[in-house]
Predict the 3D structure of the following.
Amino acid sequence: MKIAILEDHLIVAQSVAELLKARYNGEVSILNPESLDYNTLNDYEVLLLDFDYGPLGDANDILDQLNKLNITHLKIILFSSFSKQPILMTCRNPLVQGYVHKSFGFNDLVQAVDTVVTGRNWYQPKYEAEIKQLLALPKSDVLSAREKEVVRMAKQGKPREEIAKELNISVKTVDSHLGNIYQKLDINSIREL
């Protein structure tokens, strides 16, 4: 089995890679998010995907790019120290088959890998009920109150600058909300609503 780890904290990636190499006797590679060649992911079966890459973006950006390049064969496990709802919401992406919180033990990671390679989903037991609840929500129910306000105003044709002024937030924050809305609803523009 070939496993790729996309993680920006090298010590975490190296530790996990060594444990996985010992467990699976297979190839485990650490990929750098700063210089990622997405085509190399075609060579792997499993991808452990960290959520946050700071100024480089997050797992949603990686997943969007994988979709665009039609790299959909990977068994992806979201591997994060974050567990707030917006992060868990990433599990709604059809490419994600598992979620492991970094504060739990190696045995949970092994269970996740063993499960997703069989085509089934595995979610950290502590968060499984919440994730399954999020998975069951209709797309329209996944937006925050603020995101719904942004949608309402954008559908009225208001420019980003006007939305920002009315909501007393920056244009950058409006853009961030729009990006989250597009990702959550799996759309590319407000016109698709």
The radius of gyration is 18 Å.
